[in-house]
């Protein structure tokens, strides 16, 4: 499925002109080599300019791209022998979260992540990547199992937020999220969290209490969506672009605020343009994190996590 992002329209128009010139050169007895070379240079320069100066709202659009790689996409490229586990042993299974055991460079690990769909049918099956309480309880069950067998935990974050429906509230949505926050803080194994798309509110935080938190270059991480913030602040959801600029939700902003540890660069135009290359970029950072954290003792891992979150934010005492 081809999706045109607003800020990419000048590039799309230029690529169409370039294709037209190449087609004319191929089918007609006309030499347009010089014009094609000039247009290719112009396209290259325009790409450099646009992708170097993306605004927060542009990054929101990339993070929401329907073809953006999901947790299962990255699992296929980064891990071996992935065995998915199902159910929370209390209510049922939630397909908005995938969780299981795998090997990473020969080492057993537990992998957990939000999972959205690529089309309407799959999105409905996975509830558009918005977990119910049983999803978070499934995740926590696998985390406890990882601690029991001393396996590092790798979490992929990609959700608009936890499902806010009546059934989710009846089954204890807020309690499930709070329980994950509490328990993850005290786990004695390395936890690496990577925001691969949208990191929305408590639904993202429930998988986000890690020793290291990384973000893809065009991902977002925020307490609320730009549309939601605009509705509250200005009673107008159409001002989402303005809200995105003031909310500090991009990887660049959050790195500066020391909320995240490292920005993982994306391939030109966004991760959806080359999943294999993007997985390699994630692999480099993930390996580095696990190598560093594997040197810490159980107590040091807990203290490292505590110190990480204790220093986030600014406050003054009067």
TrEMBL record:
Listed pathway(s): Lipid metabolism; malonyl-CoA biosynthesis; malonyl-CoA from acetyl-CoA: step 1/1
Reactions catalysed: N(6)-carboxybiotinyl-L-lysyl-[protein] + acetyl-CoA = N(6)-biotinyl-L-lysyl-[protein] + malonyl-CoA
Enzyme class: transferase
PROSITE patterns recorded: COA_CT_CTER
EC id: 2.1.3.15
Listed GO biological process terms: fatty acid biosynthetic process; malonyl-CoA biosynthetic process
GO molecular-function terms, A-Z: acetyl-CoA carboxylase activity; ATP binding; carboxyl- or carbamoyltransferase activity
Major subcellular location class: cytoplasm
One of the record's GO cellular component terms: acetyl-CoA carboxylase complex
Subcellular location: Cytoplasm
Pfam (any one): ACCA
Signal peptide bounds: none
Keywords assigned by UniProt, alphabetized: ATP-binding, Cytoplasm, Fatty acid biosynthesis, Fatty acid metabolism, Ligase, Lipid biosynthesis, Lipid metabolism, Nucleotide-binding, Transferase
Stretches assigned to the CoA carboxyltransferase C-terminal domain: 38-292
InterPro entries reported in the protein's UniProt record: Acetyl_CoA_COase_a_su, ClpP/crotonase-like_dom_sf, COA_CT_C
Subunit comment: Acetyl-CoA carboxylase is a heterohexamer composed of biotin carboxyl carrier protein (AccB), biotin carboxylase (AccC) and two subunits each of ACCase subunit alpha (AccA) and ACCase subunit beta (AccD).
HAMAP family: AcetylCoA_CT_alpha
Name under which the protein is recorded: Acetyl-coenzyme A carboxylase carboxyl transferase subunit alpha
Source organism of this protein record: Caldibacillus thermoamylovorans
């Amino acid at each position: 499925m081809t999706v045109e992002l607003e800020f990419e329209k000048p590039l799309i128009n230029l690529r169409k002109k370039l294709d037209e010139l190449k087609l004319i050169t191929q089918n007609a007895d006309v030499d347009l080599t010089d014009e094609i070379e000039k247009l290719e240079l112009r396209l290259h320069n325009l790409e450099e300019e646009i992708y170097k100066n993306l605004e927060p709202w542009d990054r929101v659009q990339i993070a929401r791209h329907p073809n953006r790689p999901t947790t299962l996409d990255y699992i296929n490229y980064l891990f071996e022998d992935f065995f998915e586990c199902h159910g929370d042993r209390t209510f049922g299974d939630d397909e908005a979260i995938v969780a299981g055991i795998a090997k990473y460079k020969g080492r057993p690990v537990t992998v957990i992540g939000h999972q959205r769909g690529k089309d309407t049918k799959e999105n409905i099956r996975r509830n558009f990547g918005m977990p119910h309480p049983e999803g978070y309880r499934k995740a926590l069950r696998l985390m406890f199992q990882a601690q029991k067998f001393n396996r590092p935990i790798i979490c992929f974050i990609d959700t608009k937020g936890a499902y806010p429906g009546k059934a989710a509230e009846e089954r204890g949505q807020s309690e499930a999220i709070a329980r994950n926050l509490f328990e993850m803080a005290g786990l004695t194994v390395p936890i690496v969290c990577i925001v691969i798309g949208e990191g929305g509110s408590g639904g993202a935080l429930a998988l986000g209490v890690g020793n290291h938190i990384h973000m893809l270059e065009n991902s977002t991480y925020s307490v609320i969506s730009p549309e939601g913030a605009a509705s509250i602040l200005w009673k107008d959801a159409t001002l989402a672009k303005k809200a995105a600029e003031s909310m500090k939700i991009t990887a660049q902003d959050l790195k500066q605020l020391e909320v995240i540890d490292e920005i993982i660069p994306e391939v030109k135009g966004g991760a959806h343009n080359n999943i294999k290359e993007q997985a390699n970029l994630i692999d480099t950072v993930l390996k580095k994190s696990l190598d560093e954290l594997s040197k810490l003792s159980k107590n040091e891992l807990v203290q490292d996590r505590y110190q990480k979150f204790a220093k986030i934010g600014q406050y003054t005492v009067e």
